[in-house]
Design goal:
The strands form six sheets. The protein has a six-stranded mixed sheet with strand order 1-7-17-20-5-2, with no helix packed on it. Strands 8-16-12-13 form a four-stranded antiparallel sheet, with no helix packed on it. The longest helix is centred in the first third of the chain and has 13 residues. It has two domains: 116 residues, no CATH class; 92 residues, no CATH class. The protein starts with a strand and ends with a strand. It has 210 residues and is mainly beta.
Length: 210
Protein backbone atom coordinates (compact mmCIF):
# COMPACT_ATOMS: atom_id res chain seq x y z
CA UNK A 1 0.00 0.00 0.00
CA UNK A 2 1.17 3.55 -0.68
CA UNK A 3 1.92 4.70 2.86
CA UNK A 4 4.56 7.01 4.34
CA UNK A 5 5.36 6.15 7.95
CA UNK A 6 5.41 9.78 9.09
CA UNK A 7 3.05 11.61 11.41
CA UNK A 8 1.11 14.70 10.51
CA UNK A 9 2.47 17.46 12.81
CA UNK A 10 0.57 17.01 16.11
CA UNK A 11 0.65 20.74 16.77
CA UNK A 12 -1.38 21.23 13.57
CA UNK A 13 -3.86 18.40 14.20
CA UNK A 14 -4.61 19.61 17.74
CA UNK A 15 -8.09 21.11 17.74
CA UNK A 16 -9.09 19.44 14.46
CA UNK A 17 -12.64 18.19 13.99
CA UNK A 18 -13.09 14.47 13.47
CA UNK A 19 -14.26 11.11 14.71
CA UNK A 20 -15.69 7.71 13.71
CA UNK A 21 -17.93 7.23 10.71
CA UNK A 22 -20.24 4.25 10.13
CA UNK A 23 -22.21 3.13 7.13
CA UNK A 24 -25.70 1.77 7.72
CA UNK A 25 -28.18 0.78 5.02
CA UNK A 26 -31.75 1.48 6.19
CA UNK A 27 -34.79 0.11 4.36
CA UNK A 28 -38.22 1.28 5.47
CA UNK A 29 -40.86 -1.38 4.87
CA UNK A 30 -44.44 -0.75 3.77
CA UNK A 31 -45.69 -1.33 7.33
CA UNK A 32 -43.35 1.35 8.70
CA UNK A 33 -40.86 -1.04 10.26
CA UNK A 34 -37.18 -0.79 9.33
CA UNK A 35 -34.50 -3.23 8.31
CA UNK A 36 -30.96 -2.07 9.06
CA UNK A 37 -27.72 -3.60 7.88
CA UNK A 38 -24.09 -2.52 7.66
CA UNK A 39 -21.48 -3.70 5.14
CA UNK A 40 -18.70 -2.33 7.38
CA UNK A 41 -17.32 -4.47 10.20
CA UNK A 42 -15.21 -1.52 11.36
CA UNK A 43 -15.80 2.20 11.58
CA UNK A 44 -13.74 4.66 9.57
CA UNK A 45 -12.34 7.89 11.03
CA UNK A 46 -12.71 11.18 9.21
CA UNK A 47 -11.02 14.48 10.11
CA UNK A 48 -10.52 18.01 8.89
CA UNK A 49 -6.88 19.12 8.87
CA UNK A 50 -7.84 22.67 7.91
CA UNK A 51 -6.32 25.52 9.86
CA UNK A 52 -8.08 28.59 11.11
CA UNK A 53 -6.11 31.81 11.36
CA UNK A 54 -2.55 30.59 12.03
CA UNK A 55 0.99 31.76 11.47
CA UNK A 56 2.43 31.66 7.98
CA UNK A 57 4.92 29.07 9.25
CA UNK A 58 2.04 26.71 10.19
CA UNK A 59 0.38 27.20 6.82
CA UNK A 60 3.65 26.48 5.04
CA UNK A 61 4.22 23.36 7.17
CA UNK A 62 0.78 22.04 6.16
CA UNK A 63 1.45 22.82 2.51
CA UNK A 64 4.84 21.07 2.63
CA UNK A 65 3.29 17.98 4.24
CA UNK A 66 0.51 17.91 1.63
CA UNK A 67 2.97 18.24 -1.24
CA UNK A 68 5.27 15.51 0.15
CA UNK A 69 2.27 13.13 0.25
CA UNK A 70 1.35 14.01 -3.35
CA UNK A 71 -2.17 14.89 -2.23
CA UNK A 72 -4.25 11.72 -1.91
CA UNK A 73 -1.47 9.46 -3.20
CA UNK A 74 0.30 8.50 0.02
CA UNK A 75 -1.13 7.74 3.43
CA UNK A 76 0.38 8.91 6.71
CA UNK A 77 -0.05 8.77 10.49
CA UNK A 78 -2.52 11.03 12.28
CA UNK A 79 -2.74 11.65 16.02
CA UNK A 80 -6.38 11.73 17.07
CA UNK A 81 -6.19 13.90 20.17
CA UNK A 82 -9.63 12.65 21.28
CA UNK A 83 -8.60 8.96 21.14
CA UNK A 84 -4.90 8.05 21.05
CA UNK A 85 -4.34 5.74 24.04
CA UNK A 86 -5.34 2.24 25.08
CA UNK A 87 -6.68 3.83 28.27
CA UNK A 88 -8.35 7.11 29.11
CA UNK A 89 -6.41 10.16 27.95
CA UNK A 90 -5.97 11.31 31.55
CA UNK A 91 -4.33 8.03 32.57
CA UNK A 92 -0.92 6.50 31.93
CA UNK A 93 -0.53 3.50 29.64
CA UNK A 94 -0.39 0.15 31.48
CA UNK A 95 0.12 -3.37 30.17
CA UNK A 96 -3.30 -4.47 31.53
CA UNK A 97 -5.24 -1.89 29.49
CA UNK A 98 -6.55 -4.08 26.65
CA UNK A 99 -7.09 -7.83 26.37
CA UNK A 100 -5.58 -9.26 23.17
CA UNK A 101 -6.56 -12.87 23.70
CA UNK A 102 -5.79 -16.04 25.62
CA UNK A 103 -2.75 -18.21 25.08
CA UNK A 104 -3.04 -21.70 23.59
CA UNK A 105 0.60 -22.81 23.68
CA UNK A 106 0.86 -22.57 19.87
CA UNK A 107 0.06 -19.05 18.75
CA UNK A 108 2.87 -16.47 18.78
CA UNK A 109 1.20 -13.50 17.04
CA UNK A 110 -1.44 -11.22 18.56
CA UNK A 111 -3.02 -8.15 16.98
CA UNK A 112 -3.33 -4.99 19.06
CA UNK A 113 -6.97 -4.04 19.57
CA UNK A 114 -8.90 -1.44 21.51
CA UNK A 115 -12.31 -2.48 22.81
CA UNK A 116 -15.11 0.08 23.25
CA UNK A 117 -17.88 -0.90 25.65
CA UNK A 118 -21.31 0.51 26.42
CA UNK A 119 -23.95 -1.41 28.31
CA UNK A 120 -23.80 -5.04 27.31
CA UNK A 121 -22.30 -4.36 23.89
CA UNK A 122 -18.74 -3.84 22.69
CA UNK A 123 -16.68 -3.19 19.56
CA UNK A 124 -13.07 -4.36 19.08
CA UNK A 125 -11.10 -1.96 16.90
CA UNK A 126 -7.86 -3.24 15.33
CA UNK A 127 -4.93 -0.94 16.12
CA UNK A 128 -2.42 -1.02 13.27
CA UNK A 129 -0.21 2.00 13.98
CA UNK A 130 1.10 1.90 17.56
CA UNK A 131 3.58 4.59 18.51
CA UNK A 132 7.10 3.27 18.83
CA UNK A 133 8.35 3.07 22.40
CA UNK A 134 4.89 3.25 24.03
CA UNK A 135 3.79 -0.40 23.78
CA UNK A 136 3.69 -2.41 27.01
CA UNK A 137 2.73 -6.10 26.97
CA UNK A 138 1.99 -8.62 29.69
CA UNK A 139 0.87 -12.19 30.26
CA UNK A 140 -1.37 -12.72 33.27
CA UNK A 141 0.06 -10.46 36.00
CA UNK A 142 3.58 -10.23 34.62
CA UNK A 143 4.83 -7.44 32.36
CA UNK A 144 7.23 -8.58 29.65
CA UNK A 145 10.28 -6.93 28.11
CA UNK A 146 10.26 -5.75 24.51
CA UNK A 147 13.16 -7.07 22.48
CA UNK A 148 13.51 -10.06 24.78
CA UNK A 149 10.06 -11.58 25.27
CA UNK A 150 8.31 -10.02 22.27
CA UNK A 151 8.67 -7.74 19.25
CA UNK A 152 6.29 -5.02 18.06
CA UNK A 153 5.59 -4.37 14.39
CA UNK A 154 4.67 -0.67 14.42
CA UNK A 155 3.53 -0.85 10.79
CA UNK A 156 0.80 -3.45 11.46
CA UNK A 157 0.19 -3.46 15.22
CA UNK A 158 1.18 -7.12 15.50
CA UNK A 159 2.85 -8.48 18.64
CA UNK A 160 5.11 -11.48 18.13
CA UNK A 161 6.19 -13.46 21.19
CA UNK A 162 9.50 -15.28 21.38
CA UNK A 163 7.58 -18.19 22.89
CA UNK A 164 3.87 -18.87 22.54
CA UNK A 165 1.94 -17.93 25.71
CA UNK A 166 0.89 -20.93 27.78
CA UNK A 167 -2.69 -22.21 27.44
CA UNK A 168 -5.40 -20.17 29.21
CA UNK A 169 -2.99 -17.35 30.07
CA UNK A 170 -4.49 -13.89 29.32
CA UNK A 171 -2.46 -11.67 27.00
CA UNK A 172 -2.83 -7.90 27.40
CA UNK A 173 -1.23 -4.69 26.19
CA UNK A 174 -1.22 -0.94 26.58
CA UNK A 175 -0.01 1.62 24.04
CA UNK A 176 -0.41 4.94 22.32
CA UNK A 177 -1.44 4.81 18.67
CA UNK A 178 -1.95 6.79 15.49
CA UNK A 179 -4.62 6.44 12.81
CA UNK A 180 -3.54 5.56 9.23
CA UNK A 181 -5.09 8.21 6.98
CA UNK A 182 -4.74 10.02 3.66
CA UNK A 183 -5.85 13.39 2.39
CA UNK A 184 -9.34 13.18 0.87
CA UNK A 185 -8.62 15.93 -1.65
CA UNK A 186 -6.02 16.72 -4.27
CA UNK A 187 -6.01 20.45 -3.65
CA UNK A 188 -5.81 22.88 -0.76
CA UNK A 189 -6.76 26.54 -0.89
CA UNK A 190 -4.60 28.91 1.14
CA UNK A 191 -5.66 32.41 2.14
CA UNK A 192 -3.03 34.88 3.35
CA UNK A 193 -4.48 37.55 5.62
CA UNK A 194 -1.21 39.34 6.34
CA UNK A 195 2.53 38.84 6.20
CA UNK A 196 2.31 37.01 9.52
CA UNK A 197 -0.95 35.03 9.25
CA UNK A 198 -2.98 32.88 6.90
CA UNK A 199 -5.54 30.10 6.87
CA UNK A 200 -6.40 26.85 5.08
CA UNK A 201 -10.09 26.46 5.90
CA UNK A 202 -10.82 22.96 4.63
CA UNK A 203 -8.50 19.95 4.27
CA UNK A 204 -10.44 16.65 4.59
CA UNK A 205 -8.61 13.58 5.86
CA UNK A 206 -9.95 10.01 5.88
CA UNK A 207 -8.80 6.75 7.47
CA UNK A 208 -7.38 4.04 5.23
CA UNK A 209 -7.60 0.29 5.80
CA UNK A 210 -4.38 -1.54 6.65
Amino acid sequence: MNFHDVRFPPSLSFGALGGPQRRTDVVTLANGFEERNTPWAHSRRVYDAGLGMRSIDDVQALTAFFEARYGQMYGFRWKDWADFKSCRSSEGVAFEDQMLGVGDGLRNDYQLVKTYRSGGHSYARPVTKPVKGTVRVGIAQDELQEGVDYEVDTSTGMIRFAHAPDPDMPVSAGYEFDVPVRFDTDRILVSVASFQAGQVPNVPVIEVRI
